[in-house]
From TrEMBL:
<dbReference type="InterPro" id="IPR006452">
    <property type="entry name" value="Formate_DH_accessory"/>
</dbReference>
<feature type="domain" description="FdhE central">
    <location>
        <begin position="174"/>
        <end position="209"/>
    </location>
</feature>
<protein>
    <submittedName>
        <fullName>Formate dehydrogenase accessory protein</fullName>
    </submittedName>
</protein>
<dbReference type="Pfam" id="PF24859">
    <property type="entry name" value="FdhE_central"/>
</dbReference>
<dbReference type="InterPro" id="IPR024064">
    <property type="entry name" value="FdhE-like_sf"/>
</dbReference>
<dbReference type="GO" id="GO:0051604">
    <property type="term" value="P:protein maturation"/>
</dbReference>
<dbReference type="GO" id="GO:0008199">
    <property type="term" value="F:ferric iron binding"/>
</dbReference>
<dbReference type="GO" id="GO:0005829">
    <property type="term" value="C:cytosol"/>
</dbReference>
<dbReference type="InterPro" id="IPR056797">
    <property type="entry name" value="FdhE_central"/>
</dbReference>
Length: 282
């Protein structure tokens, strides 16, 4: 993220705040989170992990760029960012978020910070679930905290490789930079082409429209979507084969560029509808 992008995010948030005052709590939290993340990613300024040539070779071989590469953010900046995020969570929840204990758990991972991030990227978070049992917060909230803490450090690296991803293309249903599952999708304002968005590292990649973003099912009869009554440019794409859903913003209806992180935050009503209908986030 850069300052210019943060300004655009803030102006989108203001637009939603005016249109839907009931989103105030969630928007206030996200605004703080985006601000903290921007501060972290602008201070991190890392050297690229691998060269452009090596990145292109990996992508061409179908491997995501971070695969088998230890990723170690600056420990002090990581810690300070965690404390700031924790304060934002405490303010929103109205009760003390267990930041020091959670940071200790992360920083004392047997593989260090890079071991923790590798475990997180491979969804190996059992110890986090165990930690949840001793707090009044649910696992989703703790996972939301952890992913938002790691995200700006991954984003600061991933930005180097977006041009190679665009150049080479990537047809998989996992992120070409960090290997995570996509979180949101957008349909292009000019031609309706679909882009998937990784909420962890903010990489975007093109993906077929008639294809599940999670199980790769391409049978059109098993794929459908429904639009939001609240924001008619937002929709939910569901797969009847694996019973997952992904939220999508159609830029042709929105009339401007979709900022997936904002669209995701303001569309929680669609998560409720999809989950009540028996679909799970991918
Ligand atoms: Zn990613
Ligand atoms: Zn599916």
């Amino acid at each position: 993220m850069n300052t210019n992008r943060l300004e655009r995010i803030n102006s989108e948030i203001e637009r939603y705040r005016a249109a839907q005052p009931e989103l105030e709590t969630i928007l206030a939290l996200y605004q703080k989170v985006f601000d903290i993340q921007e501060s972290a990613s602008s201070q991190e300024e890392p050297a690229p992990l691998i060269s452009d040539e090596d990145a292109i070779a990996k992508l061409a071989a179908g491997e995501y760029i971070l695969k088998d590469i230890p990723f170690e953010p600056s420990a002090e900046l990581f810690h300070q960012t965690g404390l700031k995020l924790g304060r934002a969570f405490t303010q929103t929840a109205g009760e003390k978020f267990p930041t020091p204990a959670l940071l200790k758990l992360i920083e004392n991972h047997p593989g260090g910070l890079s071991g923790f991030i590798t475990a997180m990227l491979s969804d190996n978070l059992e110890y986090l679930a165990k930690f949840t049992q001793n707090t009044s917060f649910n696992p989703e909230t703790l996972l939301f905290f952890v992913t938002n803490l790691v995200s700006p450090f991954l984003t600061a690296q991933a930005k180097y490789y977006q041009p190679q991803v665009d150049l080479l293309g990537w047809d998989k249903n996992t992120c070409p930079f960090c290997g995570s599952s996509p979180r949101y999708s957008c349909l292009d304002k000019d031609n309706g082409a679909r882009r998937l968005f990784c909420s962890l590292c903010h990489t975007q990649w093109n993906y077929r429209r008639i294809k599940c973003a999670y199980c790769s099912n391409a049978n059109a009869e098993k794929l459908r979507h429904f639009y939001s009554a609240l924001f008619p440019y937002q929709r939910v794409d569901v797969c009847e084969k694996c019973k997952t859903y992904i939220k999508t913003t159609d830029e042709r209806r929105l009339g401007r560029e979709c900022l997936p992180e904002v669209e995701d935050a303001v569309s929680i009503h669609l998560d409720s509808i999809a989950q009540n209908e028996g679909y799970q986030p991918g």
